[in-house]
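Progress report, Aim 2. The chain analyzed during this reporting quarter is listed below.
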Amino acid sequence: MAGIYLHIPFCKQACTYCNFHFSTSLHFKEELLGALCAEMKLQKDFLNGEVISTIYFGGGTPSLLSAADCRLLMQALRENFTIEPGAEITLEANPDDITAGKLTDWKAAGINRLSIGIQSF
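Predicted structure tokens for the chain:
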């Protein structure tokens, strides 16, 4: 089973327990998204055409991305990899980022599973 992990390193605040790379500034968000899309293109043959069964947007806090950002990344994934119909596509989300509008947008972008971080309660 092949899967893809995309690290989205943006957070609203620094959590004392976190050991992952992150930034509390979205200043370089556009550059990071562009770099992720470019890397997908560079790595499209890495899996030798194996079908992708799972995609995971982790972080950081990927739920800080806009709907347009999610659509951009999903489009790049679809252009460069074969994604299994019904693949599990997960987005890590903080509870305070979840709104009815964002749920609708994430679903429209192809996100079909949330990993909700409750460690910040």
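The longest strand covers residues 83-93. The chain has a mean pLDDT of 88. These observations will guide the mutagenesis work planned for the next reporting period.
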